[in-house]
Design brief:
Two copies of one chain form a homodimer. The longest helix of chain A is centred in the first third of the chain and has 24 residues, at 3-26. The first copy, chain A, has helices at 3-26, 33-40, 47-50, 54-75, 83-103, 105-113, 124-144, 150-172, 181-200. Chain A contains nine helices and no strands. The first copy, chain A, is 75% helix and 0% strand. Chain A is elongated and about 60 Å long. Chain A has two domains: 1-51, Arc Repressor Mutant, subunit A; 61-200, Tetracycline Repressor, domain 2 (Orthogonal Bundle), CATH 1.10.357. By secondary structure, chain A is mostly helical. Chain A binds chain B through residues 112-113, 115, 122, 127, 130, 155-156, 158-159, 161-167, 169-171, 173-176, 183, 186-187, 190-191, 193-203, and chain B through 112-113, 115, 122, 127, 130, 155-156, 158-159, 161-167, 169-171, 173-176, 183, 186-187, 190-191, 193-203. Chain A binds a DNA duplex through residues 1, 3-4, 7-8, 32-34, 42-49, 53-54.
Chain lengths: 203, 203
DNA sequence: TGTACATCAGTGAACGCGCGTTCACTGATGTAC
DNA sequence: TGTACATCAGTGAACGCGCGTTCACTGATGTAC
């Protein structure tokens, strides 16, 4: 039977979950092969039967984080038939993004911090996963600025995402004084409404 | 004479400059005490007569970077007597920021990436330096939204800075496909104009 | 059912590398008389 | 000007720590006959 293969899959799953916990608690630098081995109850070497190297592990954790983020954003209200509703939808997505980042601070950071070991490239599946996130922004934009070309909407979506991301990232940065949650939410909501008003005012 | 103290000051300067060059070329992880010693022609141990530890060195390099950034932003046109001029001033500052980030990619990243060794806090002088940067945003805002309270303008300035920073940061990120310079500039200009239009349209 | 054999997951000591920081020592610089 | 001494910058080998990855070996699992 493939009882042995099934066991390996189960262990791999455990490994990834342990890695996720470790990162969530201690950040990327708190991820140690030895500790993971200890935690899932296997030897140090056995890890390399489950995963090629630590980079792959980090990538897989990132993949899970993206999936959860996507699920969170999907929960926000979607259908927008008027410009006003589209604005509300964008505000809701932005606030959901901010809340997710706050609740998953370390895991969320890994999505942006991690750089691969000199060599090469982020695998395709990781890139395409990132793309799906944009859908939550693009859908309301169709309602908000129907006259834009798809190309322009994509760029606009990217800009809006980056802008909100920036506010969240600097707001949650511990280097300066941490911004209280309510304040941060107000900033984000203000920014999105400002942009939407600007778009409505003729763009 | 203090010829010996003067020499030490000169060496310290050389050390910081060498560190700056190393970071600019190879990033923060490319900064090695041994290489610096080699470069400025002193022994490894002597570095610790010039500087307490590597953290201080990174902070000092960051300080220089902030000073240069401030000088760059100051070069952008300033006086704004109308709302339209204020908008142009903000656009100019944002584009100057983007250009600086691109031209000083690694040094600029250090400003945000570097986290102190577990222990404690960023020294006061570093914090206050960061604050001076906001002045380039706040001045045009006085003209643009004179009816806002100073408190509100500060928050708005922070939000605008964070938003532009986010667009630049993600635009220059190498993880996804690099955004061509012209495209990035258009995104930034678009964002700032959008926000200004939104502010003018009643905020 | 039983025996011989092959496969491969599992093991953990050891490898290899990197690197900031310390410290006992040296020698030049500057001071005191 | 000259001598004795003190100070302290300068030295670099060694310390200490951390950690991902490898690899010769073992033993359990599963297969063939």
């Amino acid at each position: 039977m493939s009882t042995t293969a099934a066991r390996r899959d189960r262990q791999r799953e455990q490994l990834i979950e342990a890695a996720e916990r470790a990162i969530a608690e201690k950040g990327l630098t708190g991820l140690k092969a030895r500790e993971l081995a200890l935690e899932i109850g296997c030897s140090l070497g056995a890890i390399y039967n489950l995963v090629a190297d630590m980079d792959e592990l980090v990538l897989r954790v990132g993949s899970r984080t993206l999936a959860r983020l996507d699920a969170t954003l999907s929960a926000a209200p979607k259908p927008a038939s008027s410009q006003a509703e589209a604005t509300e939808a964008l505000v809701a997505v932005a606030l959901a993004y901010s809340a997710f980042a706050r609740d998953n601070l370390q895991l969320w950071r890994v999505l942006f911090e991690h750089r691969m070991a000199e060599g090469a490239v982020v695998p395709d599946w990781a890139v395409s996963e990132q793309m799906t996130m944009f859908r939550h922004i693009l859908e309301p934009l169709v309602t908000l600025v129907p006259e834009h070309s798809e190309e322009d909407r994509n760029l606009l979506g990217r800009t809006l995402f980056s802008a909100v991301h920036g506010v969240v990232a600097i707001g949650l940065e511990e280097k300066l004084i941490a911004v209280p949650r309510r304040e941060l939410d107000r900033q984000i909501e203000g920014l999105v409404r400002l942009a939407c008003r600007g778009l409505a005012a003729g763009g």
